Amino acid sequence: MVWGLGTRAVERVGNDYPRLVALSHPSLHPDDTPEAIRYYSQQFIDLIDLEENKLKTLPVHQVIRPDYPSLRYFVQIDEDGYLSTPRGRIMMNDIHKLAITYEDLLRRTPFAGLMTKILKTLEEHYHVPVDLEFTLRVIDADKPKPGVQISLLQCRPQSVLRGNMTAVLPKDLEPGQIIFTTCFMVPQGTIKNIRKVIFISPEGYFQLPTQAIRNDLSRVIAHLNKDLDESHLFVSVQAAGGQLTPTWVYL
Question: Residue 188 pLDDT > 50, yes or no?
Answer without folding.
Answer: yes
